[in-house]
Amino acid sequence: MPRKILIALVSALVFVAHAHAADSNPKPAPGPVAVHPEADLDHLVKGELDAVIAGFDATMTSALPKSQLATVWTALGSQAGTYKSHGKAEMSEQGGYRVALIPMAFEKGDLLAKLVYDSDGKIAGLFFLPAPSKPAFQHSGIRSLEFT
């Protein structure tokens, strides 16, 4: 996948996140509101953009309207190829937000979807990142032996 276009796509989404981070009223720490990152990603994959946008917070709704979200998804498909599948979300907390990282498989390679949720369970950030490199095989039980 050409890195320049992927970097441009990720940069556009980072702009949305920075606009949200500049909000003068930061959200409190996450509460018990449930989030469903795999379902949110499924809506996007199926083209159910209204369902995706319904999960956005106010900043995301204004920064990434339906038409722009459609453009981002189309551009991603143009670069990565046909969507194949995604894995389960790995959840963490960062700066009062819950972050879901979901591995995605495309025809031309793997990506990582990053969905950021505020304390109300609304999507406050959406990113598509290059998947981390898979480590080379390492077996901890094998030691180097020297024969003479």
Describe the overall structure.
The chain is of the alpha+beta class and 148 residues long. It is 37% helix and 24% strand. The protein has a single domain, classed as Nuclear Transport Factor 2, Chain: A (Roll), CATH 3.10.450.590. The protein contains 5 helices and 5 strands. It is globular.
CATH topology type:
Nuclear Transport Factor 2, Chain: A
- The helix content, as a percent range, equals 25-40%
Could you describe the largest sheet, including whether it forms a barrel?
5 strands, antiparallel
The low-confidence runs, each spanning 5 or more residues with pLDDT under 50, are: 14-22
Give me the number of helical elements. Answer: 5
Dominant shape: globular
Computed structural class: alpha+beta
What is the CATH C level class, in words?
Alpha Beta
Count of the domains? 1
Strand content: 15-25%
**Strand runs, count:** 5
Mean pLDDT: 82
Q: Rg, please?
A: 18 Å
Topology as H/E string? HHHHHEEEEE
CATH architecture: Roll
Give a topology summary:
Blueprint: H1 3-21, H2 37-45, H3 49-54, H4 58-63, H5 66-80, E1 83-86, E2 90-94, E3 97-106, E4 109-117, E5 123-130
Antiparallel strand pairs: 1-3, 2-3, 3-4, 4-5
Write a concise synopsis of the structure shown.
With 148 residues, this protein is α+β, with helices and mostly antiparallel strands. Helix content is 37%, strand content 24%. It has a single domain (3-130), classed as Nuclear Transport Factor 2, Chain: A, CATH 3.10.450.
Search tags:
Nuclear Transport Factor 2, Chain: A; 5 helices; five-stranded antiparallel β-sheet; 148 residues; alpha+beta
